[in-house]
Specification:
With 289 residues, the chain is mainly α. It has one domain: MetI-like fold (Orthogonal Bundle), CATH 1.10.3720. The chain is built from 13 helices and no strands. α1 crosses α13 and α3 runs antiparallel to α10. The protein is globular, with a radius of gyration of 24 Å.
Length: 289
């Protein structure tokens, strides 16, 4: 009876594992093979060319721009999104009335269609859109926003932060609610002010949540695609193009599957390395007992 029970349990675990291996691991391994070949969809022969696709990428100016933009998405987007989510969570923790309503209002953008949100912002930020109309009424100069090579990327980052800050808020709220109130009460009795309690008690005990949020947010910004595609298409002058959008264009517009696979491998290595570094550097054990 016990043996049949274990057979059933391991069988149930094996099915999703096989699905994961077939859907996730196998395509990743296959992409390594493609990245080492001259893989043109219009040609029957796929000769092995070694690392030539990788060399070609680093001689492509657009790839270097996409790599630089992706770094900018992460460096700006992740800290601002986490700080905003933490600040909102700390404020909501102190709200007694309509707590559920406020949480819902902040979380709604996260569950709203990314495409719909992107197009709404694209329309409102047009040269003759609502935002510029307000600026003119206030006596200010209209702005190009998404049409400006210097402004476009920051507008896209702001939209991405706005849409995902509700998710970070919810994660931080969950972490804050697991912290025993007795720690802060004891610190308050000892004379610690609000800032000292936040810095020396709340944030250290939130460390596992912060590590999770940093890793998830970093991966999200490294994989930036939908907002960019729908708001700017990577323009103007490739000023907002990301690595994923570059890979998409290379594969499905220029049909250069070998180079696209090589760019995918580079992005995979960046995501994996950054995630491991973040978990190693940020992860700290805190125990006040």
């Amino acid at each position: 009876m016990v043996r049949h029970k274990y057979v059933f349990v391991y069988s149930c675990l094996l099915i999703p594992l096989l699905f994961f291996l077939g859907i996730r691991i196998a395509p990743i391994l296959y992409s390594f093979n493609i990245s080492l070949r001259e893989w043109d969809m219009l040609s029957e022969e796929k000769p092995f060319i070694g690392l030539q696709n990788f060399v070609q990428l680093f001689h492509d100016e657009i790839f270097l721009i996409a790599l630089r933009n992706t770094v900018k998405y992460v460096v700006i987007g992740v800290p601002v999104q986490l700080l905003a989510g933490l600040a909102i969570a700390l404020l909501l923790q102190r709200v007694n009335r309509f707590k559920g309503l406020f949480r819902t209002l902040y979380f709604i953008p996260y569950v709203t269609s990314v495409v719909a949100v992107s197009w709404v912002f694209r329309w409102t930020l047009l040269k003759n859109g609502i935002v510029n109309a307000w600026l003119i009424k206030l006596g200010l100069e209209p702005q190009l926003f998404l049409g400006s090579p210097s402004q476009g990327i920051y507008v896209v980052i702001a939209v991405m932060i706005w849409q995902s800050v509700g998710f970070q808020m919810l994660i931080f709220l969950t972490g804050l609610e697991t912290i025993p109130k007795s720690y802060e009460e004891a610190a308050a009795i000892d004379g610690a002010n609000s800032w000292q309690r936040l810095w020396h008690i709340t944030l250290p005990l939130l460390n596992p949540v912060i590590v999770f949020s940093v890793v998830i947010a970093s991966i999200s910004f490294l994989q930036s695609f939908t907002q960019i595609l729908n708001m700017t298409g990577g323009g103007p002058l490739n000023s907002t193009i990301s690595m994923v959008l570059y890979i998409y264009n290379l594969a499905f517009k220029h049909f250069k599957m070998g180079e696209a696979a090589a760019a995918t491998i580079i992005l995979f290595v960046i995501i994996l390395s950054l995630s491991l570094i973040q978990m190693k550097v940020l992860n700290r054990r805190v125990d006040y007992e």
